[in-house]
Amino acid sequence: MADHSLRLGVNIDHVATVRNARGGAYPCPIRAAQLAEQVGADGITAHLREDRRHITDADIEGLMSALKVPLNFEMAATQEMQDIALRHKPHAVCIVPEKREERTTEGGLDVIQEEDRLKRFIAPLREAGCRVSMFVAADQQQIEATQRIGADVIELHTGAYCDYHADGDVAAREQELVSLKNMARFAYDLGLEVHAGHGLSYDTVHSIAALKEIKELNIGHFLVGEAIFRGLGPAIQEMRRLMNAAREV
User: Rounded to an integer, what distance in angstroms lies between the CA atom of residue 156 and that of residue 118?
Assistant: First the structure.
C-alpha cells in the first residue's frame, strides 16, 4: 500500500527576522525550532540568504547541533552556499531563487535555463548525502528538468494559489489548484518526492494537504505570525490537526 502520510516542516526564518529587528539575541530561532520539534514538527526549514537578513551562519551551526529532526537548508545556488552546505551536511538542501530586492521568495526556480549548471552544482551535495530539492512552480517542463538533473525532490510553489485565495479570485485559485494537483501527480509518476510550500495558512492548507502525492509541507511565516496570538506550540499543533484532517477525507 502507498504511504500517504504527510510531514510538516516548520520554517523558523521569521523568528530570526524579529530577533534581527532589535539586533540582539532574542527571540532565538533555535529555541523556536526545538519547540516546534517538541510539539510534532517532522523537520525544520531555514533559509540562509546571501544578505543574512534573517537566519545567520551561527543559526545554522546551532540548528545542526540542537535538532533531532531533519534540517532542510534552503539556499541559492552559489558557491558560498554550496561550501556551507557541504561543511554541515544537512539532511536536505532546497535550492531556491534569490533576489536581493525581494521581500520573500517570488516564484519558482528556472531549472530549464540553468539545467547544466544546476546539474553540476547539486552533484557534490548529493554525494555528501544531502537530499536535494528544487523549488519550482507547477510547470511540467520545470519538473522534467528537475528530474533530468538528478534532484531527489521537488517543492511546488504554492504562493500563487495562496495569493489568489487572499484576493478572492476564486476562478484563478481553482485553476492554480488544478495545476498543482496535476503536477504533483506528474512529478510523483516521474519518481520524484513531492513537497509543497509558500504562503500556506489555516485557510489554504486543506486543499494542498489533501493531494496524496505530496509528502511534505513547509510552512513558516504564517505560523510565526499566528504564534503572536496563540503561541508557537498551539499554532503548529492546529496546523498539524488541519493537515491530518485533510488526509482523512
Answer: 18
pLDDT at 88 over 80: yes
Cα torsion through 240, 241, 243, 246, rounded to 10: 170
10 contact partners, CB below 8 Å, separation of at least 6:
33, 36, 41, 43, 44, 45, 218, 219, 220, 223, 236
* 3-state percent helix, strand, coil for the chain, nearest multiple of 5: 50, 15, 35
Distance of CA 149 to the CA centre of its chain: 20
Identify the three-state secondary structure at position 84: helix
Q: What's the rounded Cα separation, in Å, for the pair 114 and 145?
A: 9
Q: The cell 539575541 sits on which residue?
A: 25
Give the pLDDT of residue 5: 86
Instruction: Provide the 3-class DSSP secondary structure of residue 207.
Output: helix
- Exposure on the CB side of residue 140, measured as CA atoms within 13 A: 6
Whole-angstrom distance, CA of residue 131 vs CA of residue 148 = 15
Is the C-alpha dihedral spanning 103, 108, 112, 118 positive or negative?
A: positive
How does DSSP assign 18-74, residue by residue? Answer: HHHHHTSS-S-HHHHHHHHHHTT-SEEEEE--TT-SS--HHHHHHHHHH-SSPEEEE
Residue 167 has pLDDT above 60, yes or no: yes
In this prediction the pTM is 0.93
**What residue type is assigned to position 8 of the chain?**
L
Residue type, 238: E
Query: Which active-site residues does the annotation give?
Result: 47, 74, 198
